[in-house]
Amino acid sequence: MNSPSQISFLDGTFSLIHIPLSLYPVFLQPILQVLLPNGEFDSGKEIEGLSIDNKHGFLNVSITPVECSVVCHDNWAKKVFEPVIRRLPRDASNTVTISRDGYLILSVISAGMNAGTGVMELTSPLALAGIPIFFITTYYSDFILVPTKDRQTVVQALLCRGFEFSEDESAFVSPTVHVRGGSVSSQPPSTPPPSNVAELQTRTFELLKKRNVVPFIEKDLTVVLCSGKDLEQEQMNHFSSRRPTPTRRLTGNGTNGDHARRSWLDNVDTKLYTSLISVLVLQPRFLSMTLAQEDPPSLLIDKTQLGVFGDSLVGDVEGDLIPIFLDLENLPIEATGIVSGVAGKLVAEMRMAETGDGEQLSYLSTARAGAVILSSEQSIRALEVMEPLLSKE
């Protein structure tokens, strides 16, 4: 039986930033400035977007064959990225986008849930409620971005799906038995949402086909999902492809009880960060790094880069995961159901829920793209499922 999922809102409002790969060198310094918030603590003032011990509440930096994408606290978007955009020539600045509306981030702890089924189970109630989302799988947890304006609809969708408030009402806890229902009564969007999961999947692939979205795999690109070492817990257990139970606190404000603010260097594995900087400077073909306050750093990296990190990583570094990319540039950012529709179709058609193969399915949303991440064998089968649905007759 699956362990109950716990879903909670992270503190703060976040921005989603799209950077064309051609401008990545221009934005490398801002990315590093956000990643390593050094030199800003002399005043002793707290920095919005960081905890009292100078940890990011949430930060994702992803470089893919489609784009560079950053999810960061609004404070960083305004104070670090916007000034750089304003200094660009107009033609170049118009190609960089910061989401007009803010996003909230739902943190999902579901250690016992099959990863592939989890993507579908967690995103389908939101998609059926007409809520556009972004989904990021990490080594320990899943994170869902939802528009700030849709917070109440999200709450209602989860409650109608059978989720319940935790004892202190700081999070939602899934029921022992998943409740499968239809759409949620809410302020209707311009296009009525699908009434069930099957219709959601059909609509998703119809939209992708209409917008000429063709799934593709980068030649010779194999990635691994891994983690930096947990310095606080010193977890040196044997890791497998199954995501371990996170050692994060389920509730609380994330403070460490210290009155004095500590440098970010007190909280990180300097070898991991030095390696990460080395890879970022060279503009990797693929990298997705996620920092969350309660988890060690999580990385999806090109397997050829493993040697740079040495023994600073833990996880299934012998894995052979293949990303299937979907360039979503021609879709409106408010398009709904993409994650749930694609993942759900693959889980159903490839019978992942029955065979247990869904354990290795991950999903990465970036500003203008999506990536379904599977084992090398599963990726071939997934393309066989997707290509006929998206090919022009």
TrEMBL record:
Residues 99-158 form the CASTOR ACT domain. Coiled coil: none annotated. Residues 242-257 have a biased composition (Low complexity). It holds the Pfam family ACT_7. Residues 235-258 are annotated as: Disordered. One of its GO terms (biological process) is carboxylic acid biosynthetic process. This is CASTOR ACT domain-containing protein. It comes from Apiospora kogelbergensis.
